[in-house]
UniProtKB/TrEMBL annotation:
This is MBL fold metallo-hydrolase. Residues 13-195 form the Metallo-beta-lactamase domain. The keyword Zinc applies. Keywords: Hydrolase, Metal-binding, Zinc. SMART domains: Lactamase_B.
């Protein structure tokens, strides 16, 4: 069974995820932890559940999703996986981080690259890598078919979608990819987004104002 635990970190109220199987093998996705208190919250949960964190994944590399990358790599001795098209996005964070007040930001380089359609192992479970660019050029989503759950990053939110006015954003492409990649999943699929509460594919197919049947845009 796949277990998903969410944490809400940093001033952007970003959702970070710890995903693990029944054996306790875990991966950390989009660690936005920036303060000592936020890092302790994550560490305490890992210790309480006796988890072994073996990999670090980014859905994409905007600042709010990567603030804890360098810390997590060192703390758990794990490699960072991103999509290759996110390399410049990740590198740019160290340039603009001070503008957002993150003067102590420490950069971290990717160790491996995610591929569209790849099955990424989490112990005995597998996450399928879906390529859903538009919010960011190399944005990926992690889908667990057996449980009908996915970590969606900043692609699809409850009643909204990821913003596309940042460098590398593409509004039309995001709409297209949500419809082709995410809306092809079963209606009961639970989407755990990068911000805000979870939602389901079925709900968004009808009610999302950008891409749903009742879309007004």
């Amino acid at each position: 069974m796949l277990h998903i635990k969410s944490f809400t970190f940093n001033p952007f109220q970003e959702n970070s995820y710890l995903v693990h199987d029944d054996s306790g093998t875990a991966v950390l996705i989009d660690p936005g932890c920036h303060t000592a208190a936020e890092r302790s919250e994550l560490e305490d949960y890992i210790a309480a559940k006796a988890l072994k964190v073996v990999n670090l994944l980014n859905t994409h590399c905007h600042i709010d999703h990567v603030l804890g990358n360098a810390w997590a790599k060192k703390r758990f001795g794990i490699p960072l996986w991103i999509h290759r098209q996110e390399i410049p996005v990740l590198k740019s964070v160290e340039v603009y981080a001070p503008n957002y007040g993150f003067h102590g930001y420490e950069s971290a380089e990717a160790d491996h690259f995610l591929e569209e359609g790849q099955l990424f192992k989490v112990g005995e479970e597998s996450l399928k890598v879906l390529f859903v660019p538009g919010h960011a050029p190399g944005h990926v989503v992690f889908y667990h078919e057996d449980s009908g759950q996915c970590i969606g990053g900043d692609t699809l939110f409850k009643g909204s979608i990821g913003r596309t006015d940042l460098p590398g954003g593409n509004h039309d492409l995001l709409l297209e990819k949500i419809k082709s990649e995410l809306f092809s999943l079963p209606d009961g699929t639970v989407v755990y987004p990068g911000h805000g509460p979870e939602t389901t594919i079925g709900f968004e197919k009808v009610y999302n104002p950008f891409v749903g049947e009742r879309a007004i845009y």
